[in-house]
């Protein structure tokens, strides 16, 4: 049972992030690019938080470099995307 949990856990982390990213792409394809950008930024922030709280083994593909670098980069990029999505003038669109 323990071996199964270790094998599934890394997959669940990336699947959770990918599900949110698919929702973001759905918004963009539905011509709601600002909402899509916001959700994409949230997905990147979720990836950063997961990288922070999960062990290196459980982080799976979210582990690229050292934990501090991964967390800092993901949170900075995700935060920037969210900030831009909420601060850009809608120009008549949502």
TrEMBL record:
Pfam families: DUF3017
Membrane-traversing stretches: 12-30, 36-54, 69-88
Origin: domain of life: Bacteria
Keyword annotations: Membrane, Transmembrane, Transmembrane helix
Name by which UniProt lists this protein: Integral membrane protein
Organism per entry: Rhodococcus rhodnii LMG 5362
């Amino acid at each position: 049972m323990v071996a199964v949990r270790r094998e599934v856990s890394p997959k669940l982390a990336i699947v959770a992030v990918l599900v949110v990213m698919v929702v973001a792409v759905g918004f963009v394809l539905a011509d709601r690019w600002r909402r899509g950008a916001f959700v994409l930024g949230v997905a990147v922030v979720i990836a950063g938080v997961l990288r922070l709280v999960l062990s290196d083994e459980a982080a799976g593909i979210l582990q690229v470099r050292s934990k501090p670098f991964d967390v800092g980069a993901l949170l900075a990029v995700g935060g920037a995307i969210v900030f831009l999505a909420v601060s850009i003038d809608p120009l008549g669109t949502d």
